[in-house]
Amino acid sequence: MNAMQAAEVAPSTTPKVASAGQYLTFLLAGEEYGLDILKVQEIRGWLPVTRIPHTPPHVQGVLNLRGTIVPIIDLRQRFDMAKADYTHTTVVIVMSVADKTGKRVIGIVVDGVSDVLNITPDTIKPAPNFGTAVRTEFVNGLGAMENRMVILLDSDKLLTDNELTVVGAVH
Questions:
Q1: 28 in Cβ contact with 110 (< 8 Å)
Q2: Which of 18, 22, 27, 88 could form a disulfide with 140 if both were Cys (CB 3.0 to 4.6 A apart)?
Q3: d(Cα 21, Cα 35) in Å, to the nearest integer?
């Protein structure tokens, strides 16, 4: 096996860092998070969803969005945060995620949308390593600007392949 083949087989130990660009920022339990704006399809106000039995607690149900059945994920519950009542500021961010079978559309419930930020390379810091006690595989980095810190998420890793399979079965 040559060095090139070994590099392809060995898992990368370098943490993935978010790329510069525009990020849709939103609030969740008082913290600000960001998603690559190119993954976002639309932002909708909260509407009740159709519940699906035997799904994980963070899967709220599905919405029929112009003929497409979209699984809706409560991001607070996905991140093991305290559940909150849905209010007039609660929104669903409909976005495209990639998995091993291709692209899917999912919706995530968040407390509210904040802004669209231009994140420059000099403001992006790698996600801290907390060891195995804290799951951070969906964090791409931190946008560190003057008086604020934005947690930059990897939308493709918000759900595991198994969870995507479960929500995909709802179609």
A1: yes
A2: 18
A3: 10
